[in-house]
Design brief:
mainly beta; 173 residues; two-stranded antiparallel ribbon; globular; Immunoglobulin-like; 1 helix
Length: 173
Amino acid sequence: MRFLSHAALGASVLLLTACGHLAGQGLGAGTSLQPRSGSATSGQANFRQQGDRVLVRVEVSGLTPGQEHGLHIHDKGDCSAPDAMSAGGHFNPTGKPHGPQNADHHGGDLPALKADASGKARAEFSVTGVTVAPGPTSIVGRSLVVHKDADDYKTQPTGNSGARIACGVIAAS
């Protein structure tokens, strides 16, 4: 009887481990942000799947000192245009309106970056509505875009955050 209990426990652990792996636990992605629209803005971002959330770490330089800048995941993995318009609109796999993370929002709506006095920003936050794992909500193969202005989280569908000053295609790591 005790043998069956241990066997059942072992099978349960294996099943839970497999389910966690299939759900994308611990999967990662990243991008290197390159200047666009005549800016000197550049940086890096990393994404890590943690359950139903994605942990985001971003470091950007060349921003307007003391200013907030919009940060979004865009639909297309294409930063080839000088103004990054080739990245398309915000990634919105569930058809939600533009907004902040604590309300209905596009999958690509991210918290703003706040530049320090030297024009650098570092941020770490987690988001919902997207994944690193393969599927319709995956951010892999899409673009991360830094905007010139702050996101007002009201104007549809973009947040009125201005020119695209840095862009990078998100790749699995």
